[in-house]
Amino acid sequence: MIKLSNEIIDRQEARSRETNDKLAEISAELEGSKRIVESINESSTQIKTENENVVKVVENLSAIAEENAATTEEVAASVDTQVQAIQNISQASESLADIASQLQSEGF
Predict the structure, then answer these.
(1) In angstroms, rounded to a whole number, what is the distance separating the alpha carbons of residues 78 and 89?
(2) Contacts of 89 (CB under 8 A, 6+ apart)
């Protein structure tokens, strides 16, 4: 009976050691998983920050494009005004040339 009790105790001690070993392995794996999750969280935070930076750059580029479009419209309007003024001067010059021709042919 004592021998049987000792055998049972020995088996329980062996199983207890195995259980402790398995729990240590599980604990080590959980630590590894924890580190991986922390790394993923840090990467996610960095990605979020970089995405925010990209959004800001795109917004700035959009604002610059709008300003360029407005400036281009202003320049186009100015060019149209100058073209019209040059055409008016050209027509006035032609009229003056016609008047000068008439005056010369009339003897003035």
Answers:
(1) 16
(2) none
